[in-house]
Amino acid sequence: MDLTYPPEAEALRKEVRGWLEDNLPEGWFEPGFHLSGAEREAFNAEWIHKLRQGGWICASWPTEYGGKGLSLIELVVVTEEFARADAPLRADFFGDTLVGPTILQWGSDEQKREFIPRILDGTIAWCQGFSEPDAGSDLASLTTRATLDGDEWVINGQKVWTTQAQFADYVFLLARTDPDVEKHQGISYLLVPMRQPGVEVRPIKQIDASSEFNEVWFSDARCPKDNVVGGVNNGWKVAMTTLGFERGASSTTGHRRFQKELDQVLGEARRLGADTDPIVRQGLARAWSKVKLMQINGYRTLTDALNGTHHAAALGALHKMFWSEYHQEVMDLTIDILGLGGQILTGSDGADDDQFRRSRQGGTGYPVSDLQASFFFSRSETIWGGTAEIQRNIVGERVLGLPKEPRPA
After folding, report:
1. Domain limits of the chain?
2. What's the predicted TM-score (pTM) here?
């Protein structure tokens, strides 16, 4: 693990820090600074414009496609400084972090010219069409079909847990294009317009009234023949690249949200007098230790990425398993600390709710507090992005060298 950053990265850090101080609202760094609901909306709209002008959105992308061409270590520095300032950086997770880098690596020149500028300027919204009712952790078992009809693919099937599908212009979709070969080999990665006949989106309403997830049906939906990324029947390899982009630049900052939340839990424990309970104190100490382990492992991951050592998928599995199970554990402790008061909806139901809470809560009618919202969301974290059970299989097979799990007959 190497904690020494090269001089060019530290020079960039100074530049980023100065840019943030010049462009964030006056008073941003003062204790207790807060934006109301209307102020937050105005800030978000203006901030995206400033980020694009500054070149900080997708800053690692090649300069010919609108990025700054930053190296991984330079991108880490940018991420660290934005996290230090508690300033939002990401504009569109699916576009900026998943499909955009995938198109840059695997896409044709025509695909890059058509989609990359629209991702950068925010004029196209995306969703991810991977999971199906019977193909989640075993994604290669997907049954959505794409059949070539002249110059178009005709798509039929169903996707589920499709985040933000109701707002998306395009879906990056895995579909079976050859049913007669081994299941991993007959899949293609398609860029499919969402706003067309034959695409039906049904929101999945959650217990807190939110509907971030959706079911999506494709009934003779179409996309151009040339919208295959990475070649026909090569979709599995392309999709693994997409999933790999979820990790990397945030390796040294991923622990920060857990540290910030744990500070809030500690504050509640002190307020309620639970910090004198030896069992609670032990739980809080265990949580603090695990957050520190996340921080240390983040630097180890960055060192591995820079040196090309170890297996990225296995490391990703270890980290995903660790933080998702930690978060459920500390949220259980939080509800214990809150006691009966934790069973009461204590959040605001007004316009001052911040964007994070609304995205978890779904708007009005279920006014949870920040910690209550985090408790609810933590329930899903050992499932999405690969279940904890699947992560253990990856670690067992790729790190420990154990035999592969027997396949069902």
Report:
1. 7-91, 123-236, 256-344+379-398
2. 0.81
